[in-house]
Amino acid sequence: LQVLCRYRHVWNINLRFRPAFLGGIMQETGSNKPPAMLPKRAEYMLKDIKRMSEYYQVPLRISEDSLQHVLRQSTLGAMRFITAIDMTQPQYLEPLSREFWIRFWSQHEDISQPENILAVAGQAGLSSEVAQKLLEMISSPAVKNRLKETTEEAIKHGAFGMPAVVAHFNGEAHLFFGSDRLELLGSIIGEKWLGPVPT
Which residues does 147 contact at the CB level (< 8 Å), separation at least 6? Predict the structure, then answer.
């Protein structure tokens, strides 16, 4: 997420955020479990996240305790809120998504709580009145259906987990899973990988 935003103008790509629900993807595909559910993989993942944080220069802060806390959190309310933004005020989609990301992965906030959702919205530049209306929308059938549709679309493209990036290039859709596939993404679209922080 963060590095793709850095590359938007370097690669001259049209970067479009599409909210999808990870729980729905994992349930529908039935072939994926969170990596941290496997003890040895969780142990490795903690070390790898630290290395990736330093390499990509992104403030990930995860410990064994916080990883278990993150795994127990529901992101459904946040994803519905992001979906409501996408439907009504898409200009806020990127700052809102990035703020949710930071609060979840770096500050370990419970982004399922209404007060935290409203705080994220304020940080992203939304007025409290607009944020409150959007919060009320998250239980509406329109928002629920839209999130379900984008989740199903991700699955149709082959998503089985997150992060998932779908690159549309030369009439084809190419799925990339994981945050370490950006160099491959660049090669598919004919662009050069210039490292995690391109100048």
Answer: 19, 20, 21, 79, 80, 83
The span from the CA of 59 to the CA of 49, in Å, is 10
User: What's the distance, CA 132 to chain centroid?
Assistant: 22
* Chain mean pLDDT for the chain: 90
- 3-state DSSP call for residue 38? coil
164, two tokens: 């998932």
CA distance 169 to 130: 36
128 vs 10, 80, 132, 139, 195, CA distance in Å? Answer: 35, 17, 6, 18, 38
Spatial separation of the C-alpha atoms in residues 47 and 133, rounded to whole Å: 41
Please give the tally of structural domains in the chain.
Answer: 1
Structural contact between residues 175 and 159, judged by C-beta atoms closer than 8 angstroms: yes
Model-level pTM?
Answer: 0.88
**C-alpha–C-alpha distance, residues 31 and 95, integer Å:** 32
**Helix residue ranges, H only, 57-92:** 64-72, 76-88
Pairing label, strands 172-177, 164-169:
antiparallel
- Residue 20's pLDDT band (boundaries 50, 70, 90)? very high
Identify whether 198 is part of a domain. no
- Which tens digits make up the pLDDT trace of 99-111? 999 998 888 888 9
* Mean pLDDT on 153-157: 96
- CATH number, domain of 63, equals 3.40.30.10
